[in-house]
Amino acid sequence: MQSAAIQIQKNGGPDELEFIEVAVPPPGEGEVQIRQSAIGVNFADIYQRRGSHGPHQPTSFPIVLGSQGAGRIEAVGPGVSGLEVGQSVGCFQPGAYQVVRNVPAARVVPLPAQIPEDVAGATLLRGLTAEYLLRRISPVQPGDAVLVHAAAGGMGVILCQWARALGATVIGTVGSEAKREIALAHGCHHVIDYRREDFVARTLELTDGRGVAVVYDAVGKDVFVPSLSCLRPLGMAINYGTASGDVEAFDLQLLHAKSLMVCRPTLRTFIADAASLRQGMAALSEAVGAGHVRLEVGQRFAFADAREAHRQLEARQTSGAVVLIP
Asked: Where does the Enoyl reductase (ER) domain start and stop, copy by copy (predicted)?
């Protein structure tokens, strides 16, 4: 069988994305073959394309980008149980920019009825990231105040909704008036336009000088160090993305006065085995089923328009989750 795929031969800009045809053999031991109907576009794909630091393993060229998708199982390999032909599933495995692909069954999760394939392809990676950020690294407690950078982005809208459902007061930062409305509609109690306001001063004002329990930072270089000033004593700054560039060396003494904590996690380690992946998926499905989190597609691009999807995401011109539709 032949399948359309997108690869890069070297690091660089969106023009490095090449559209190719690849041969897909029958699924092997422990694998399922999936025809994807939706392929997620995440900033991790930008990192990998550019060759910058990010949550991906070094590998040799050519590289098929991407790590998440959704579709239906077309064939089941030997030794696979609990998955069947025709089943609607999401998958997490490098090489997602490929329409038909073989994936280890351990990296596949059945989709509940409340999460359609296009939504899953766009949002599951972000939803599972939100799960470990909110529930495992520093569990949000009722009454906590939290600061979410890029609150109108694909990750931000999930984090804000879920944090509010957990009882937090949610403060979000955005870069435009249009994005302010998106953030308010997705869980934020307060929204700060960082282009017009000093987000540190405004966060402290909104918390009566106490600061927030946690900062969720997907921006990186431009905001990480100033965000430390937004934290209450024993607060934690979690940098899980670097849209503005990597956070480079900073003075550890900045943490000393208030006994602050910092963390640089990646989803890969939290879903490293099948049990952990299924556990995270169960929690996300429960939150969606309860109405605490609305998973939505922000923008759809045709598979053939992947370069434009990368350009817009990299330029921060997108709102919400981005998905390629084969």
From this structure: 12-324
